[in-house]
Design goal:
heterodimer; A: 288 residues; 7-stranded mixed β-sheet; disordered N terminus; B: 315 residues; alpha/beta; 8 strands; 49% helix; globular
């Protein structure tokens, strides 16, 4: 520990770090986390944040995700009035309430899921996306409730639901309320299924824990972006339990495909085309 | 009986040891010693009452994990008659971490499903310490769907440290197995009553925990992540597990307040392992009453109420 670390209080230090990562523009260049290529940011963005050198799919925020997925016109945000709650008055080294406030400031989102009604190549759809930068995309009441309300709209209007997940799992700070969101979201998905309203789950890096064990694997179509990691237990937990190294590529989307957990892997640049094509067939419409 | 006292029960253990000693000495029917023993017994009961009237959440976690805590098989023996265990998921194998089968509750056919941790070392290993793999949850699903066809209420007994975190578990789709159970249980056309009898840990517990009624035994626990896991993430050490247990509200009293748990079944003084017959009798009485209540409703009403209940979580 350096002398500076010793004199600056913990809280200030971590707050400071967050601010640099989220607020200060990183400039025109970004280094790919996978191949270390230095990439020109505007070009990277044109490429939907996929590394042009190695095809690494970088994480993107919820709004950006829905922005590049839905048609530009006629978008309407759903369930934005659903806000996080702190029923347990959870407190560890910090109050959960304060963690929420700083996550809200850092991301500009009220919680870790954004839901919208819009169109995909002219087809009405409801689409939701997880915001991983908000508390690790974890699911508590607000995420579960927003997902459920969005799914209710899909159910009532009989239009397809698409979910882009990116999450560490259920949110600890809401304890059993978070766990019960798994049951809640699964129940509404089951109603879509019984009605024959298509639900497509797209897993993007990473999808773990309670979200993986509920809404993310209940799609009529389960799909994932290339190289996305998804599983129930995190690799560290598994290694600790079985005391052996995990095989290469374990829990990546290619692994999931090989083991029959997902239907197909979809490259980000093909996402609109592919999902529109699938949904058009499921809803018996001509190709867009 | 050697009761395997927990750390916080040490004062009780010491008193009980003294009583035992006196009993050995006083085998010659000495009146004074008999009197002394009954005094000490009274003191021991008072002491136990004192300690148990103010258990911390972490202490309750320890009671819920007590090595002598009654398991699913113990309750099956005491609460039901005509028990037939049924095996296998029809796809891959049979998972001993989950027991399932048909039996009679007060004469009525029911489907019983529960996790089983195992008592002896060998049994613990064969039951994977109560940590089910996908085939366990798929066996449970198969049995639940069978119960629906034959109009039997489903009674689940929850007691698991969690779904098994292993390579094979992931390869065979543990997430999908859990998710599928949640989805199907939300609309299964037969009453479902779930009871946490020991440790209800996360998705691995919930995968047999969606239904019309959720009971908890008084000293059982239910959490989204184990207190140790939570402590490890937040404080970077398992030593803080007691704080994590406190913060997460893992006990029936908190969960009943949150509207998640419907009924708490009182345990004998000192925990279920002190009087297994009594706690089984109490749980059975609750289950008989709940099956009657739920069976008197039309299936449509039952399912609508179940859906509403699921939708209300967190509101």
């Amino acid at each position: 520990m350096s002398w500076l670390d010793k004199i600056v209080p913990n809280v200030v230090r971590s707050e400071g770090k967050k601010r640099t990562s989220s607020k200060v523009p990183e400039g025109l260049w970004k280094k790919c986390a996978k191949c270390a290529a230095v990439l020109y940011r505007p070009e990277l963005e044109r490429n939907l944040d996929v590394c042009p050198k190695c095809d690494h799919h970088m994480r993107i925020g919820a709004r950006k995700r829905l922005g590049v997925f839905l048609d530009e016109e006629d978008r309407e945000e759903l369930a934005a009035d659903v806000l996080p709650t702190d029923r347990l008055k959870f407190k560890d080294v910090k109050k959960y309430k304060d963690r929420l406030t700083s996550a809200q400031k850092a991301t500009g989102e009220k919680d870790a899921l954004v839901a919208m009604r819009g169109t995909l190549k002219g087809m009405p759809v409801v689409a939701v996306a997880f915001e991983f930068a908000f508390h690790g995309g974890s699911m508590g009441y607000a995420v579960g409730e927003r997902f459920t309300r969005a799914a209710q709209v899909a159910l009532e209007e009989n239009i397809p639901l698409v979910c882009f997940s990116a999450t560490g799992g259920a949110r600890m700070q809401e304890a059993l309320i978070s766990l019960m969101q798994m049951a809640k979201t699964s129940a509404v998905i089951e109603r879509l299924k019984l009605q024959g309203t298509p639900y497509i789950s797209v897993m993007t890096d990473p999808v773990y824990g309670g979200v993986s064990a509920s809404l993310a694997l209940l799609g009529d179509i389960n799909t994932a972006e290339p190289g996305a990691r998804a599983g129930f237990a995190g690799p560290a937990i598994i290694e600790q339990t079985i005391r052996q190294k995990l095989p290469k590529g374990f829990q990546r989307s290619e692994f999931l495909l090989e083991h029959g957990a997902i239907d197909l892997i979809i490259h980000r640049k093909d996402m609109r085309e592919k999902l529109a094509g699938l949904l058009a067939k499921f809803t018996n419409q001509s190709a867009a | 009986m050697n009761l395997n006292y927990l750390d916080f029960e040490q004062p009780i253990a010491e008193l009980e040891a003294k009583i035992e000693e006196l009993q050995l000495v006083g085998s010659d029917n000495d009146l004074n010693i008999t009197e002394e023993i009954s005094k000490l017994r009274e003191k021991s009961t008072k002491l136990t009452e004192g300690i148990y009237s103010d258990l911390s959440p972490w202490q309750i976690v320890q009671v819920a994990r007590h090595p002598q805590r009654p398991y699913t098989s113990d309750y099956i023996k005491r609460m039901f008659t005509d028990w037939d265990e049924l095996h296998g998921d029809r796809h891959f194998g049979d998972d001993n971490a989950i027991i399932g089968g048909v039996a009679r509750l007060d004469g009525k056919p029911v489907m019983v499903i529960g996790q089983e941790k195992g008592r002896s070392v060998n049994e613990k290993v064969s039951r994977n310490f109560g940590m089910p793999k996908p085939e366990g949850y798929r066996k449970a699903l198969r049995l639940m769907e069978m119960a629906e066809r034959f109009k039997m209420p489903v009674l689940t007994l929850i007691d698991t440290p969690g779904a098994y975190p292993g390579i094979d578990s992931e390869e065979r789709g543990i997430s999908e197995a859990i998710a599928q159970n949640l989805a199907v249980m939300s609309r299964l056309r037969t009453p479902i009553i779930c009871t946490v009898i020991g440790e209800g840990s996360s998705g691995g517990a919930l995968a047999i925990g969606v239904g019309d009624q959720l009971n908890m035994l008084q000293y059982s626990t239910y959490f989204v992540i184990s207190p140790e896991g939570c402590a490890n993430i937040i404080w970077k050490t398992v030593e803080k597990a007691p704080l994590a247990a406190e913060a997460m509200g893992v006990t029936s009293s908190v969960l009943q307040e949150l509207g998640i748990v419907d009924e708490t079944i009182p345990e004998p003084l000192g925990g279920a392992h002190r009087d297994l017959d009594l706690v089984a009798e109490r749980l059975k009485a609750s289950l008989v009453r709940q099956v009657d209540e739920l069976s008197s409703q039309s299936l449509d009403d039952l399912l609508e109420a179940r859906y509403k209940r699921l939708m209300s979580y967190g509101n």
